[in-house]
Amino acid sequence: EPTVRTELMEQIPPIAIFLQESRPKFPTAFFEYLMPIVVRYLTDVNNQVRKAGQEALLILLEQDLVAQSDIENKVCPILLDLSAPDSDDEYKVEAVNIICKMASMLSRTTVEHMLLPRFCELCSDGKLFQVRKICAANFGDICNAVGQEATERLLIPKFFELCSDSVWGMRKACAECFMAVSYTTSPEVRRSKLSPLFISLISDTCRWVRQAAFQSLGPFISTFANPSSAGLYIREDGTLSIRPPAQDVNSNSCQPSNNITVVSSSANAA
Predict the structure, then answer these.
(1) Each residue's pLDDT tens digit in the chain (270 positions)?
(2) Residue boundaries of the structural domains of the chain
(3) Which among 30, 176, 244, 245 could bridge 269 via Cys, Cβ 3.0 to 4.6 Å?
(4) CA end-to-end span of the chain, whole Å?
């Protein structure tokens, strides 16, 4: 029964945490018994079971309970199969969504070598706009996961494609994550490539795209500032924040020195 399998998936993370805490007693139980079930349920015929499996996988990755070998040899291959060009549409949409969500939890090498080529392919998927929409909405997170060199070499050309997509929702998603993409690039790429691209979004024929671009204008401009002098920096959760200068903190010791969150980036992508 699908409900039984769904319930089982919901119990996997707490069982895995228990096994991790009791590892001397159960050194291989998780890898031998539980992980194969999680991987198998990613391709279950029932969508609720698959959804529960995906959620369980993300929790396990977040808790750092999945071995690197299992990620590379079991999880990534099944996601690559599910997101292949000839894959079922529903499976493909789910696969690209889980790839985007797990990218920030994996090592840069794993993301760049195993998942980035497929992500670039999916950005140009001409069959399903839902796939391109997921890629656009999570573009900043993927850039952050792979770093500057891979972003400029492989992702920026794809970002240009998405920013000129015929579906306005795609262009709007790109405008919303523009700061996160810009922050990952060099000042020269920011100035010579991203600035003209941003102007095209702020002049878009669709008012929803223009509105999203205007809302991202300040955050985009902030990426040109020198963090050491302006105090602007990007938190791990993707928010643009202000760090008070050291001299101000010292001279006003009675004032709170908490960082001030200015605006969210791609986390607010609609």
Answers:
(1) 999 999 999 999 999 999 888 877 877 888 888 899 999 999 999 999 999 999 999 999 998 888 888 899 999 999 999 999 888 889 999 999 999 999 989 999 999 999 999 999 999 988 888 999 999 999 999 999 999 999 999 999 999 999 999 999 999 999 999 999 999 999 999 999 999 999 999 999 999 999 999 999 988 988 887 655 444 555 655 555 555 554 444 444 333 334 333 343 344 443
(2) 1-66
(3) 176
(4) 35
**Counting Cβ atoms within 10 Å, is residue 85 exposed (0-12), middle (13-18) or buried (19+)?**
exposed
Q: Is the dihedral of CA 131, 78, 74, 94 positive or negative?
A: positive
In angstroms, rounded to a whole number, what is the distance separating the alpha carbons of residues 129 and 52?
A: 24
- How would you class 192 by CB atoms within 10 Å of its CB: exposed for 0-12, middle for 13-18, buried for 19 or more? exposed
How do beta strands 260-264 and 232-234 pair? unpaired
| C-alpha dist (Å) from residue 84 to 81, 115, 118, 127, 201 | 5, 12, 8, 12, 31
